[in-house]
Structure formats: C-alpha cells, structure tokens
Amino acid sequence: MAISALSVRKPVLATAALAAALALAGCSGSADAGSGSAATSAAEAAGAKAPLFAQLPEDIQKAGTINVASNVEYPPFESFDTDGTTIVGIDRDIADELEKQLGVTLKFNNIAFDAIIPGLVSGRYDMAMSAMSDTVERQKQVDFVDYFSAGGGIMTAAANAESLKTLDDLCGKAVGIVKGTTEDADAAEQSEKCKAAGKAPLNVTIYAGQNQAVLAVQSGRVDAFLVDSTSGSVIAAESKGQLVQGPRYQDLAFGIVFPKDSRQLTEAVQKAMGELKADGSYGKILAKYEMADHAVDEFPINGVTE
Questions:
Q1: Which of 73, 223, 261, 268 has its CA 20 to 30 A from that of 142?
Q2: Coil, helix or strand at residue 248
C-alpha cells in the first residue's frame, strides 16, 4: 500500500473469515456454489448454537456467510495490516464479535467507496461496514444501523495548519475529496458560500480513495483534504508531523449499511450490536483505538432524520 506507514497496525484475532478478504464475492443468497446439502447442514448446525442465528434470513443461515462491502483504506475503521492481506480496524473487530452473536462468517470485500451503495442495491453484497455516514439522502437507497458518532474535518500539511482551520478559509484553495463521500457535498456547499461572499470557490479534486487524497496533501498537489476527523486524526498522528487534522466542522453518525429489502438482516445485526454493548465488547473495541468518546448509547435504524 502506498502509504503503509500511515495505516493502523494494531493486532487483532485472525479468523478464517479473512481468507478471501480481497475477493469480490456475490451476495450470500447465491453463494452456494460447490457446496452440497451435507456442507450446508453442517454450517447451519454450527451456526445454530449462536444466540441470534435463528433471526437471520434463511438464505444467509444456509450460506453461513454475510458478504460485506468495504473500502479497506480508512484507518482506524479498516485497513490492511503489514502483510497486505489481513484486514484490521474497528469494523473488523466489531465484525469478529458479530460473528459470535450471529453464527456466520462476515466476509469483507474490498471495493471503491462509491461502489458500495450500488453494490448493495444490486444485491451483490449483503451489507457494508465502511465508516459510511448515515444521511437522509442515502436512506432513499439503503438502510443504516448507526453505531459511531463522527464528523468531517480539514486535513492539511503542517505548514498550512494555522491558515486553513475553517471551511471559509478554503475559498480559492485546492481541496481533495474522496469520491462518493459526504465531504463532496460539503465542498460544493462551501463553494457556493464563497461565491456569495465574492470569493473564489474551492478548487476541488476528486480521488478514488483516501490514500490518493492523503498523498496529494503530502505532495502539495492540494492545500487541504476534507475527511472524517476520526480517520484523519489517526493518519495525522502517524505522519511524523507532516499532517495536521483540524477539529470537526459537523457532527455525523456512521452506520452499518443494508439494502432496503433486508429488514430481517438489518434487525438481526441491530440486536447483535445491542448485545455487544451489553457484554462490553463494543466499548472495549472503541477504547482499543482510543475512540471511546465516539461511542453511542443506542443503535437506531436510520437514526439521522435531517
């Protein structure tokens, strides 16, 4: 990975679920290729011991797998470990605990961030874990189980940290955005404010992934990068003083994401998150990544209403 020095490198328990982390798999309803009825029965028998297995959709019970879409370059939520294959981070740790509650494997599939919602809508993936903000606009296509309090912020090179602290400071500046993120809309809105004030709009460059945007800031190709302050603070802390992450300019909720027609799976995962909160594992995971202050008390479905 191009900026491996900036990725989270904290050990997590290895699981068999990571064996095909980079494969782009189809949705679990059709993931029965090559498996006979005996294998299916064995998977169901093993999973049935889990507390919430029976509340999963029947096709997922039979498959024994939930195919999860994720853009794996977003520490501390998901990134590749030093081996370039193993996925680590908050979402993978939560997925490990969800497996215990649900009795099935959560298999991560690394795809572009802006391909996640289309992949869910088309049925290619069963759900997504990728630090995606719950918004009313996105709720028109997908459902969310909110699980993390977050918000956008401004990342700059250290030399620009004092002069580029607020969105108003970005008028006329070169700004990087990751395609498909809420920061894209933030930049467009700010550009209109700049023009209304008689100033130049933001000169926005859209990047396919976070790594490219971070490199653009480091190399001086852009003056700032609009990014979730949680992930940005981790990258800045590991940049050896090159980068600075400013405070949040908004408050958002991240959610685990589901297709609109997957209410049964959505509710099963929501219940499982409640169990992780009750048994303390949710809090321990966030504390491990020094994110305890971003915990939520409840896990609402589509909790953002405006």
A1: 73
A2: coil
Q: What is the pLDDT of residues 124-143, one digit of tens each?
A: 999 999 999 999 999 999 99
- Over the stretch 55-72, which tens digit does the pLDDT of each residue have? 999 999 999 999 999 999
Q: Based on the number of CB atoms within 10 Å of its own CB, is 250 exposed (0-12), middle (13-18) or buried (19 or more)?
A: middle
Q: How far apart are CA 38 and CA 51, in angstroms?
A: 23
Please report, rounded to a whole number, the percentage of residues in the chain having pLDDT higher than 70.
85
- SS3 at position 283: helix
Q: What is the DSSP letter of 209?
A: S
How many domains is the chain partitioned into structurally? 2
> So what's the pLDDT on residue 1?
40
* Mean pLDDT value across the chain: 88
What are the strands, taking DSSP E only, across 91-195?
A: 105-110, 127-133, 142-150, 152-157, 174-178
Q: What are 275's two structure tokens?
A: 């169990």
Cα(148)–Cα(26) distance, integer angstroms: 27
Same domain, 211 and 240: yes
Question: Which position has the token pair 């995606």?
Answer: 132
